[in-house]
Design a protein that fits this description.
The protein has one helix at 70-105, and strands spanning 13-30, 33-49, 52-65. The chain is elongated, with a radius of gyration of 18 Å. It has 1 helix and 3 strands; from the N terminus they run βββα.
Length: 106
């Protein structure tokens, strides 16, 4: 990737990212309220380049503490999804980079 972003017309590769859903699993309770949870974020990647197509579904996990306030809880859940998407993108880029390196050495 070499850290360059180009217009769709000039790009050698295109990556389409689709949010495929999330699940929040309570891990700890205090006085009947969830105080820690695990967010499981699913992201679908489709990459097209001159070598063909690559599809991958990546699941990332984010664990976080949460407060009893519903407003704070909503913001923390949104942040957990953002972090999960970021982790999934990092994993996908590492995956296609490593796969490309393997093809180059053959």
């Amino acid at each position: 990737f070499k850290g360059r972003v180009a217009s769709k017309e000039e790009a050698e590769s295109q990556i389409r990212i689709s949010y495929a859903g999330s699940t929040f699993i309570p891990l700890a309770y205090e006085d009947g309220y969830v105080t820690r949870y695990r967010a499981v974020i699913r992201v679908k990647f489709n990459m097209v380049n001159k070598l063909g197509k690559e599809q991958k579904l990546i699941t990332s996990i984010v664990e976080s503490d949460i407060q009893a306030s519903s407003l704070t809880s909503s913001a923390l859940r949104t942040e957990a999804i953002r972090k999960g998407l970021e982790k999934a993108l990092d994993e996908f880029l590492a995956y296609v980079s490593a796969k490309g390196m393997l093809k180059e050495t053959k």
